[in-house]
Write a structure and sequence with these properties.
The protein is an all-alpha fold. It is 70% helix and 0% strand. The protein has helices at residues 17-45, 61-68, 70-103, 109-120, 124-135, 141-147, 162-172, 176-188, 192-199, 204-232, 236-242, 250-259, 265-291, 314-341, 358-365, 367-400, 406-414, 421-433, 445-455, 457-469, 474-481, 486-497, 499-515, 531-540, 544-574. The two termini are 44 Å apart.
């Protein structure tokens, strides 16, 4: 008689079903409230003709007023146009750079990949201020240099334009995120078909075009769709560079509605609701497209490729191109951000004594800065720790495969993935204003932290799921044999084993909370203002010198976090 091996799902079956069901019910109720209710209030609020907190009167006047305004339709169109125009060249460059890092003999590939990770964590608002210093029509350094040429009469560069927004956004967001996702995919791809193409006499461009890219097309498409959605979510660049010249996208249009007196909540929620519906339709067709495609196998039992494509002398050209791109898109604005923070008048290099320390001294002496720093540290710490505790528990329940409503819970965890920060902020705002939570969370650091924790759900949950799937049930089983409870074994056995993942996720969420603008921009008050909003206010009020100093300070904090996190991650991995 043949013996069969039964694989016991993680965790062990001895866990008490009643306690497990209570945990499942608690998670479903919690996520239904914090993720489902904001969407519900966002959609129903678009038909509510009364102010938040008043007796509801429903009608379609909000939709009529919003879409009777030609600016609303233009803002929707501009959102898609900007995202698409930025996406195409960025994806091409990201695919090339990832291929050079993972599949060729280009020297310095690991350094280039680390620089992409480093650049990804640099907040975009300080970089926007740096590009203003470089490209402004009146005092921009590059325009000043151009005017010194005999054949140039006026400014050459204009950041306050469609192409200026595209350029600055490409510099701040650029290819970093895409390379981070694409490089491991290229690295894991099996080499059998590529080697067969080489044997058949195909040159490198032919092999890349006919073999490599078609094999990876589903993953490349997935990253392109994700990048497109991230591009649509963009808020900071369009707010600073587009608003002065009346170039609006949907997010800045929503912000504009809510800055009116009185705030136009109905029109804002109508615009947010229709945009959410458009995103759902796009994702539906994307998933339908992928489900109809045949499967592509890129990792086989033959192992990974150990033979890299030899570029010959071209490898130094490729390395030089990567370094040049990083220097122009990242190093140049960072250098001028440092210079701008010490300038007596932002952009005026011709003054007799152009540099000073006054802006730094006034920044550190400003009580508003100290309060904002305290608020940011509280928000970022609560976001990081809350995300670790909450989503590690959710991942535990999902991996156990004992949930009756597992797909529902996982769907709720993925909801923030399709919600741009400004829409999430608007949904949470309606939740606060329309419920008793108004007295507890509205305008507080805790309300901002809750919104940020909700936004971190997809990435954090999936990271912990991946870590838990790699653990066997032996450790927890031993703890249960000795009489340990589920909570004790989870807290003392599983969480310590997940420390490397928890540290990485915590640092990412901490940095994201420290620099986020689109999520807290509708939720903060004067008492709960974080550093990112203070930086935005400096930019609006023309205090660019102090804004550059604050932006540089935030950048230094994030950079130190990345370096410490990388070193800590390496140590934890070795142990």
């Amino acid at each position: 008689m043949k013996s069969h091996t039964v694989t016991v799902p993680f965790p062990i079956p001895r866990i008490r079903i009643r306690a497990f069901r209570l945990a499942e019910l608690a998670m479903l109720l919690f996520f239904g409230l914090v993720m489902g209710l904001p969407l519900f209030f966002l959609f129903t609020g678009s038909f509510n003709l009364s102010a938040p907190g008043k007796e509801a009167v429903y009608g379609i006047e909000n939709w009529v007023r919003a879409f009777a305004d030609r600016g609303t339709l233009n803002a929707l169109w501009m959102s898609f146009l900007l995202s698409m125009v930025r996406l195409i060249p960025a994806m091409i460059l990201a695919v090339i750079v990832a291929w050079l890092i993972a599949r060729t003999d280009m020297p310095g590939g690991k350094t280039i990949e680390f620089l992409c990770w480093f650049a990804y964590f640099i907040p975009d608002l300080p970089l926007i201020l740096a590009w203003i210093l470089l490209l402004d029509l009146n005092f921009g350094f590059l325009n000043t240099l151009a005017r010194s040429l005999p054949f140039v009469d006026g400014p050459v560069f204009n950041p306050y334009s469609f192409w200026g927004i595209v350029w600055v956004h490409t510099s701040a967001g650029g290819i970093w995120f895409k390379v981070m996702l694409l490089a491991p995919i290229f690295r894991r791809m099996g080499a059998a078909l590529e080697e067969a193409a080489r044997v058949a006499g195909a040159n490198t461009p032919t092999m890349l075009w006919r073999i490599t890219l078609p094999l990876l097309s589903p993953m490349i498409l997935a990253i392109a769709v994700l990048s497109f959605i991230r591009g649509i979510q963009s808020f900071n660049t369009e707010l600073l560079l587009g608003t002065p010249v009346k170039i609006y996208v949907y997010s800045t249009r929503i912000y504009d509605y809510l800055q009116q007196e009185p705030p136009a909540y109905g029109e804002a929620t109508a615009l947010g609701s229709v945009f959410l519906l458009v995103l759902v339709v796009l994702l539906f067709f994307y998933w339908r497209y992928l489900s109809g495609k045949r499967k592509f196998t890129v990792v086989t039992g033959q192992g990974y490729s150990t033979v890299r494509v030899k570029l010959g002398k071209g490898k130094y050209v490729a390395l030089g191109g990567c370094i040049l791109y990083f220097a122009v898109m990242m190093a140049l604005p960072l250098v001028f951000l440092v210079i701008g923070s010490f300038m007596r008048r932002y952009g005026f290099f011709h003054l007799e004594s152009p540099f000073t320390l006054d802006h730094w001294q006034r920044l550190f002496a400003d009580p508003i800065f100290l309060v904002s720093l305290k608020n940011s540290l509280i928000i970022a710490t609560v976001t990081a720790l809350g995300g670790i505790l909450l989503y590690s528990s959710v991942a535990y329940l999902l991996v156990s495969r004992r949930l009756l409503a597992g797909p529902v819970l996982e769907t709720l965890c993925w909801l923030p993935h399709i919600l741009p920060g400004i829409l999430l902020s608007l949904g949470v705002l309606w939740l606060f204003l329309s419920t008793p939570l108004r007295a507890i969370l509205y305008g507080t650091v805790w309300g901002i932290a809750l919104a940020l924790i909700i936004g971190d759900s997809p990435v954090t949950t999936q990271a912990f799921k991946a870590g838990l799937l790699q653990l066997g049930s032996d450790f927890e089983e031993a703890a249960r044999v000795t009489g340990a409870s589920w909570w004790y074994s989870y807290r003392r056995i599983l969480l310590p084993l997940l420390v490397p993942i928890a540290a990485a996720v915590g640092l990412i969420n901490f940095g994201s909370a420290l620099t986020s603008i689109s999520t807290p921009v509708l939720l903060y008050s004067h008492q709960s203002r974080p550093l990112s909003i203070l930086l935005l206010e400096y930019s609006f009020t023309g205090e660019l010198e102090r804004g550059a100093a604050l932006g540089l300070l935030i950048t230094v904090i994030i950079s130190l976090m990345v370096l410490v996190g990388r070193k800590l991650g390496l140590q934890l991995t070795r142990t």
